[in-house]
Batch of 2 targets.
Target 1
Amino acid sequence: MATCSYTVPDKNVTGDNFYGASICNQTYIDYFWNTYGFSGNKDYWDDGFGWEDACNTDKPLARTFNACYLLTYSAQDYANDAYSGPMLNWARRYVRDNCDDLRSLCGDGSAIATSFSGPFTDDRIELYLGFWYSKDVPGRAETLIHESRHQGGKPHNANFPAGSVFGAGKSGADSTWGYEGAWMYGALYLWWFYAQGARTTSALRERARQRGNLVIDNAFATHPGFNI
């Protein structure tokens, strides 16, 4: 990667070896590329980000495809993505409905992702090194949902609570679970994935539970009052 520097974490732990065994299929690659906002953005995914090496799970594109695979196929009856069903089914639909411009950039080495939208703005989601190399595959799916919720019109509306690992007192939190913001969408998906995720491993489901509880405990100005 021309201007990025990163270290690839243990791919057995992050789930990249597990999901990487499935994504190296041209049918899947074409589907993800054309469905989840990559299409038309080749210039953001080549030059070391993986466009020319789409099966290499050391690189950002394949690590993003792993998250897309998890989003697409983790419901037992994944073909049913009606919004009236469980979020495990319709999260894939929500992301594809709201994420039509997905770009890869280096960032500052720790940044995860950012959503840009509004008047006189090039609506887009940017993914950074932290997305690929500090998050496991379920956590990357959570991020795609989180940022898609912003694209769907839900900004953060509160400051993080005292003691939050995300920065106590800083903006970027959601006020309540009932606000149904980006943090709620991400945590709810992780909850469903933990409870009913298919085509995965028990270890990754447990990691999703832990991440979901981290969000619940730290990302709401008023704690929801429950945990996973």
Target 2
Amino acid sequence: MPAKATNDQKPEIRTLTTTAELAEFCALAKAQPYVTLDTEFLRERTYYSRLCLIQAALPPASAAKAPGGSAVLIDPLVEGLSLEPLYDLFRHKATVKVFHAARQDLEIFFHDAGVMPDPLFDTQIAAMVCGFGEQVGYETLVKKIARQPLDKSSRFTDWSHRPLSDAQAAYALADVTHLRAIYEFLSAQLDKTGRAPWLAEEVAVLLDPETYITRPEEAWERVRTRSGSPRFLAVVRELARFRESFAQERDIPRARVFKDDALIELASTKPLSEADLAKSRLLLRDARRGEIASGILAAVKAGVEARDLPKPAPEEPGRPGNAALADLLRVLLKAKADAAGVAPRLIASASDLDAIASGARDLPALHGWRAEVFGRDALRLAAGEIALSAQGGAVKVVPVAP
């Protein structure tokens, strides 16, 4: 058991390195209303993130019952440590799992074990719902809510290296200890305003496995191209499919296979042999021979011979013919977001507004809580049923007589 802290001694940081220790901590967590969590990982050299550290903290009131303290580090790199007790906690419905900006953390757990922490509370999303601005960072919330400084000096370190330094351990633990005060504040705010269902709508997207599945056959849709030629796009599709599959199977970054600029070059030149690949200006040397070269040539051939040609994506809707309406929608969004105390970007993006102005109606901005705050009036504005009026420093919605 860690030694008790004196006035000139910092509390010892406890790291769980055995399955039994982890099971004991998770059993305590199951008796609590919530547990705060975070991860540290590396992704520079792999396709899938490599989990290097997990941080967890129980509510402060549980400290007396938690051997060694209510906040711990969990070392997943220790041989023989099973994370199943943690995954069992993730499935435990009576304990809320609290993360900040949870998407990357959840992606790791989904790909490693096919499990999601449910119920989930994401403090970044909750902060946007509560009016703290767009994509608010953890450090900002620590300062504004927990009223504590935060040392970020260890942020960009190698979390796979052992042993961790004292600075690394302290930095990692701070990511979950301050999160307790942030969660309790934001949870109370959501209950007070009745906006907990708003957060639930956003969290549902994070808990949907589809959010974390990357299908090789769809990878081409993320490649930006200037040409809309169906045949060119067919080659892009097959090259992107090969690259994604190759990277996934070998767990390497897709850029290690070839980058997007090289992909576009290959789709334009359509090489037929390794001699043609040798002429590429952008292709990495290792990609000009061996498995990658064979895959490239097969992908180009498949694209050239494809009968199911992809259709070019429709142009961004909006600006030319609907500029006036799109601008009015921007004014309406700003007014509605300010009145509701919600980050505008959480309600609708600039492209969403252009799409609404062009007649699109199947958009998140027009459904759920967003419709209540903005979407219904956006549709009324587009239909000419309301107008906007400036009164002093405020924008008012004015009904238009039929």
